[in-house]
Structures are given as C-alpha cells and as structure tokens.
Amino acid sequence: MDIKARKVGHSITLTVPINIKVEIGQEFTVHTQPDGSIVFTPKHQNPFEGNWFNEDLAQTEALLEPDTEVLDSEWS
C-alpha cells in the first residue's frame, strides 16, 4: 500500500487508510529513524495520572446502594 504526503495549511499530511483502523482523535508520538522511516506510536493514558478516581464513581456508587449486584448475572 502506498500513500502520498500532501500539504494542508502549514502542515504536511500522511493519509491513513481506513483498514488500518485508527480511531479518530487517537494521539501518537512520532519518531524518525536514521534511514528516514517515520514511526507513529500510539500514546496510552497513564492510569496513575489525572483525576480519574473522582470522575469514575460508577463502581463506588453501586457498592453504596443496598441490594445492588456488582457482577453481571453471567458471573454468578
């Protein structure tokens, strides 16, 4: 598969074919190799950064309510 670099505004764009299945909004770190290769590495969110423990309370709220099953019935 070949792609072609093109100018868009003040940037050069490389189009990613849909069959590569990159999610819209996915962020990448870019590295260039000595041979001229360009390597795009997906960024992963560090699970220890941010305020996730205050934002994702679904599990905690379920545990606080009486008569609430945490596990799905298929796991019972």
Provide structural commentary.
This protein has a domain at 22-66. The N and C termini lie far apart (48 Å). It is an alpha+beta fold. The chain contains two helices and four strands; from the N terminus they run E-E-E-E-H-H. This is Type II toxin-antitoxin system PemI/MazE family antitoxin.
Care to give the gist of this entry?
The protein has 76 residues and is of the alpha+beta class. The protein has a domain of 45 residues.
Helical stretch tally: 2
The SS-based structural class is alpha+beta
Task: Give the overall average pLDDT.
Answer: 78
Q: Could you give the distance between the termini?
A: 48 Å
Q: Compute the number of strand runs.
A: 4
Instruction: Give helix % range.
Output: 10-25%
Strand content: 15-25%
Q: Gyration radius, to the nearest Å?
A: 21 Å
Order of helices and strands: EEEEHH
Give the overall shape, derived from the CA principal axes: elongated
Major β-sheet annotation = 2 strands, antiparallel
Q: Low-confidence runs (pLDDT<50, min 5 residues)?
A: none
Strand ordering within the main sheet: 1-2
